[in-house]
């Protein structure tokens, strides 16, 4: 995993066995290397706990913060709170290999591990597929698009009641 951004490379050689804490403040510029532009801004804190053991490393990556996204219904921008955590076990072997989503093998002579990709994945997996403005659910959002959707919903509901299939009407009489 080659990356020129050394800020996210954890150098574990020289660290004592045990827990080591690292913190990162992440904004929109973090995502430029990944060509990810699904939101307008980001204010995310990432905490990484590296547990160095004699035979392997354990990484616990957690993120918490907000991203500014567009509502899928109204296109209004809002701050969406996100949080997530992932745990990784890093073993030493002959070459770099991602065995599964929680187990990584790195070359035995390595002295650092780049965690930028894993922080990125932790954040992206925390973003819900459907992003709905909280004002939509509680009725406090005043939006032209939302008003239009509600008008269409009411009109469609009235049309559905008036235009029933005659075959269903005969079945309803049986009840």
What does this structure look like?
By secondary structure, the chain is of the alpha+beta class. The chain is built from four helices and eight strands. The longest helix is centred in the C-terminal third of the chain and has 19 residues. It is elongated and about 80 Å long.
Identify the overall geometry: elongated
Number of strands: 8
Strand order of the largest sheet: 2-3-4-5-7-6
User: How much is the radius of gyration in Å?
Assistant: 25 Å
- Number of spatially distinct domains: 2
Number of helices: 4
Q: Please give the largest β-sheet.
A: 6 strands, mixed
Order of helices and strands: EEEEEEEEHHHH
Helix percentage = 25-40%
Distance between the termini: 67 Å
Low-confidence stretches: none
Q: Estimate the strand proportion.
A: 35-45%
What is the average per-residue confidence, as pLDDT, rounded to a whole number? 84
Structural class of the secondary structure composition?
alpha+beta
Labels describing this entry:
elongated, six-stranded mixed β-sheet, two-stranded antiparallel sheet, single chain, 2 domains, 175 residues, 39% strand, alpha+beta
Overview in brief:
The chain is of the alpha+beta class and 175 residues long. The chain has helices at residues 116-126, 134-138, 144-162, 166-174; strands at 9-11, 18-26, 41-52, 56-70, 77-93, 97-100, 103-107, 112-114.
Helix/strand layout:
Blueprint: E1 9-11, E2 18-26, E3 41-52, E4 56-70, E5 77-93, E6 97-100, E7 103-107, E8 112-114, H1 116-126, H2 134-138, H3 144-162, H4 166-174
Parallel strand pairs: 5-7
Antiparallel strand pairs: 1-8, 2-3, 3-4, 4-5, 6-7
């Amino acid at each position: 995993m080659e990356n020129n951004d050394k800020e996210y490379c954890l150098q574990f050689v020289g660290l004592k066995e045990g827990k080591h804490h690292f913190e990162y403040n992440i904004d929109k510029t973090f995502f430029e290397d990944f060509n990810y532009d699904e939101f307008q801004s980001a204010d995310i804190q990432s905490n990484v706990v590296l547990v160095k053991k004699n035979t392997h490393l354990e990484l616990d990556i957690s993120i918490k913060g907000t991203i500014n996204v567009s509502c899928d219904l109204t296109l209004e921008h809002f701050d969406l709170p996100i949080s997530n955590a992932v745990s990784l076990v890093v073993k030493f072997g002959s070459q770099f290999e991602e065995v599964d989503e929680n187990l990584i093998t790195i070359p035995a002579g390595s002295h650092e591990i780049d965690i930028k990709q894993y922080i990125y994945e932790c954040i992206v997996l925390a973003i819900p597929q459907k992003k709905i403005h909280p004002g939509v659910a509680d009725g406090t959002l005043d939006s032209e698009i939302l008003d239009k959707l509600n008008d269409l919903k009411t009109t469609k509901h009235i049309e559905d009641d008036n235009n029933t299939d005659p075959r269903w009407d005969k079945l309803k009489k049986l009840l």
